[in-house]
Amino acid sequence: MSQCLFCRIVAGEIPVDEVMRTDEVVAFRDIAPQAPVHVLVIPAKHYADALAISSSDPQLAGNLIKAATDVATAEGLAGGYRIVLNTGADGGQTVQHVHAHLLGGRAMKWPPG
Ligand code: 5GP
Ligand code: ZN
Q1: Which residues contact 97 (CB under 8 A, 6 or more apart)?
Q2: pTM (two decimals)
Q3: How many domains would you assign to the chain?
């Protein structure tokens, strides 16, 4: 059994509120939402972070962004949204399986914390 939390979610071992699944990516609602819409989009295959996926499989990295924008459209976020990939300790990454945060449903502030 994988020790990686998000690999376990991909495998269906941990229940989540899933909003999209393809052979390549899985999207599910964040357990601690920071906006009215807060969805995590992850590759089914394990990569630790944005550098790892973009180095090893840039096409999959692109498909991850495509999936996030598809979810944004499906969630009705026509007014805009934010896609975030926290990377590494300084980036605030807490789960070491690359994931795009899709945040929307409210006006975002800049700069982020
Ligand atoms: P990071 O801090 O690595 O950028 O984002 C990790 C995200 O995963 C956090 O927003 C956190 O709330 C979310 N998360 C952590 N554990 C779980 C879980 O078991 N289920 C769901 N749905 N989200 C989780
Ligand atoms: Zn993983």
Answers
A1: 4, 5, 6, 7, 42, 46, 47, 48
A2: 0.98
A3: 1
In this model, does residue 95 exceed pLDDT 80? yes
> Domain residues for 66?
5-104
Q: Find the 78 Cα to ligand 2 centroid distance in Å.
A: 31
State whether the beta carbon of 91 lies less than 6 angstroms from ligand 1. no
Q: What separation in Å is there between the alpha carbon of 40 and the centre of ligand 1? A: 8
- Please tell me what DSSP assigns to residue 69: H
Helix (H, G, I), strand (E, B) or coil at 27: strand
Looking at the predicted structure, is the pLDDT value of residue 1 above 90? no
- For a substitution probing ligand 1, which of 40, 97, 99, 102 has the most ligand atoms within 8 Å of its CB? 40
